Amino acid sequence: MSVWLLCALLSSLICQTEQDGRSLPIKEVEVYVEKTNTSDYGAWVLNVEWRDELKAGNNESRKVSYDMEVLHTEQMRTVHSETIHVTQGNTALHHWKWTSPIPLQCTSHSVKLRRQDQHHISEWTPLYTYKGQDLSATSEMVFPHDQVFMVGSNITFCCILKKENVPLSDSKFVNRISNRTYITNSLHFDSPSSDSTIQCNVSGSYSPGSTVFIGYPPDDQNLTCVTWSLSSVECRWEMGRDTGMRGNKRTIYTLNGRVCDFNKCVLPAVPNQVTNWTLIAKNDLGVKTLTDTADPTHRVLLRAPSELSHTAYARSVTLEWSWDVTTYTSFPMICQVKLNGSFYNKTFSGKGLSKIDLDHLQPFVNYTVNVSCGSDEHFYAWSEWSNITFTTKEDIPEAVDVWFEYFKQNTYVLWKPLNQQQSHGIITHYELTKGKRREIIDINTLCYNVTTGNERSDQNITVSAKNSAGLSPPTTIIVPGYPDNEVHISRISSHNGEWEYFNSTCGYVVEWFPTYTKKQCTVQWKKIPESEHATLNRTSQNGIFKVVEKYACNENKSVLLQRSEGYAIEQGNFKEGEKYTVSVYACNENKPVLLQRSEGYATEQEPSGTVQKLRGKQNGRNLELYWNEVPLQQQKGFIQGYKVITFLSGSETPVNTTVTKEPRVSLILDSGTYIFRVSAFTSGGYGGNATLNFHMEIEIDQMIVTTVVGCSAATLVFIVITVLCYRKRKWLKKLLYPDIPEPKLAGKWTTKGMYCTQMTEGYMKCEIQEVHSSECPATAESTHGLDLISSNSTVFPAQHFYQNISESPADVSYYPPPLLCAQKLTSIIENPSYNMTIPELDNVAQISELTLEMQDSYLPAPNFVQKNFVVKDSACYKPQSA
């Protein structure tokens, strides 16, 4: 009994010891590397397996943890630690993997572990070691080598020395992890490479290296399987991203288990049955799988027609070919054709099609024909192109385009050479018929003189072209006998301009030639058919004429058919800056009739020359500049005007800029030396400058003349104002200073006077008359109111009279005939306060005193003229007294 108690006690103590951790439950620990095809060149995964013998009670599971540590054995340096959690039953076999940052061959790696649960932690197990190559290396080694890595990987290399403390001459291996092992820092590879090499340079011995491969896994796409012959299927696919793998690292392809080359794999076909095709692309970095499914009869891709032959005619060809595949002879197919690179306007179909006809071809033209066919019943795709080249036969040429010109009193017939499409073969010669005479003309001659002596009548000329197929249709033109040069020549402008529509039975002809450089047979022309009556606009950029409308004649009315843009004369026929003469002819009964002639430029440029003979003429301060025009051939456009820039000598700042349309300009300038620059301009720009230096001199006599003329003008204005004021003096006096009423004399008055009349032979007749009047006569021609009391007359020489008058002018009064009031004669009235005496004259009586009887005592103040004599010019004389 006591023995059993002792055994139970011992068993209890053992269990308690195990639970306290003094006894390890971890058994059968094994450490090894994961084997792969390349693990001998660098193993990276370390595997640890162990068995935990601690049983859970009552068959229950419980959670336990294990602490794992990995060490570099020689240095006993921990490189990795981790705690893993597992659920454990009564017995458990556990496995743990760890991926090393360096190949495991670089140095020995040791692993230890311990167990822990909710209340207890076991002791660490002993070290379990995977031995590295550094313990047994007999030569320098580098790991990893001959391995494949993904682009973007970070790799650490190690170098193992065969002896300790051997110096390294390579700076890449900078870290020492054991007595004989050195490692690099992590190296990054960001692009594909098939032979990246890392050297381990050891002084004094062979330097081994490591070659690694950097790339991508397969990325192939678009697997497509078709049949060529209905007996086999050919599958093709496209490579995606380049893997960068070459040689024995390349991608391996298998299709439905059969190894294939890239992009081509052939398998037997099963007609009328849906088939699945699976492609597997594999390399050391990954696998890509592609599939395709179809009925082979719906994937027919025919071979290209072979052995093409032809039978060519002038305007058609027959093509024949054969098929390399016998099953094609009864296979329904459709074929398409390319003619000189362009698709023919129809397709062809039939079973086993091997012959087609192509028409509407041009004679004597080289053609390249391509033929491609496909399944007509279940069309999938066109076959590859087959090709053949041939030349159609010759045909008779088209009609020749014929025109005429007058040059230096001769008449020439011209025609345009036929191009390849018009000649329909090789032109051998031309035939010209004039009346009954036919002439053979060489192919290099395109102009013929048809003038015969003094012949000036209309001529009927016919021209035809000849090749191996025959003569072209004849072209007939009636050449007028006399050139019509009477038409007005207008200017072609750059805006709207049209020729008027004239009746024409055979259309219009537009003719043009260089105005200043016309040579024999250089006229160019373009014919506009009568069915295309056009309104032609003149433009300066896109040619001289532009067709914008087309009309047709319907019931004698012009009906607009089309409005479009097209050139009657192509721009390429004109040189920029060249002046052309353009003529428009209408055709009436096949005879050209000149309608209009114009001159102009297709594109105007700036003048290439300058104005000529620039000179000046001074007139005072006025300078007249004038010059000759730019030479015609150098104008390059219509001259629109001239620009004159004036500079003072020595200065580049203009003092005046003038634009004029005439070849002259007038300038007002001060004295000094001036530089004048004159340039002509067109719509295309300004030409070069003509320069003139001119010295302005202002002369003194000119200044005097100018001053006198100015003063004279001012004087003249003053005189004119004075005369106007004098003539309007009454109006001015009335406006500015009205008259004061004068007293009226009452009663009778008496006056005496001497009146003289010029006579012949130098004598004068003088009379002394006495006049009585009480009031002014009623009329100017009447003498009523004048009483002639006495009249004494004396005749004496006039010289003697004037002499005495001049000696004492104050004492003599001379009167005209006594019509004082009516005829507004000058009167001289004696002042009543004085006595007027006349000097004694030979044979002249003493003049009596003039007395005036006044009834009123009021006398106005007298007006004196030459010693108290008053002269009055009035319609009604009113005497005044002091």
TrEMBL record:
The entry's keywords: Glycoprotein, Membrane, Receptor, Repeat, Signal, Transmembrane, Transmembrane helix
Transmembrane segments: 703-726
Domain Fibronectin type-III: 304-395, 396-486
InterPro entries per UniProt: FN3_dom (IPR003961), FN3_sf (IPR036116), Ig-like_fold (IPR013783), LIF-R-like_Ig-like (IPR048497), LIFR_D2 (IPR040817), Type1_Cytokine_Rcpt_Type2 (IPR052672)
One matching Pfam family: LIFR_D2
Principal subcellular localisation of the protein: membrane
Protein name as catalogued: Leukemia inhibitory factor receptor
